[in-house]
Amino acid sequence: MGKAIVKCMIATYAEDSYIVEVPCEKDDIDELIITRAWQKVKEQEPAIPYGHRTAEILKRIDD
After folding, report:
1. What are the E-state strand segments in the chain?
2. Are residues 7 and 63 in contact, defined by beta-carbon separation less than 8 angstroms?
3. What is the pTM of this model?
4. Which of 62, 15, 22 is nearest to 42 (CA)?
5. What is the end-to-end Cα distance of the chain in Å, rounded?
6. In this predicted structure, what is the pLDDT of residue 15?
7. pLDDT of residue 46
8. Which residue numbers in the chain have pLDDT < 70?
9. How far apart are the C-alpha atoms of 57 and 7, rounded to whole Å?
10. pLDDT in the model for residue 27
């Protein structure tokens, strides 16, 4: 199992961003990895601000 580094951004007045590492398989689609990243952000941050959310995969590491 590999891992992916994902940058999750929320468009607020301050442009909040979170960088998380999530597990992934070699053939996982991007949407699945991004969903896992948002779940991890929600676990780590008790209060996530409202705003338009975007995410991008910065790096995928296949083991």
Report:
1. 2-11, 16-24, 52-61
2. no
3. 0.88
4. 22
5. 6
6. 85
7. 84
8. none
9. 6
10. 92
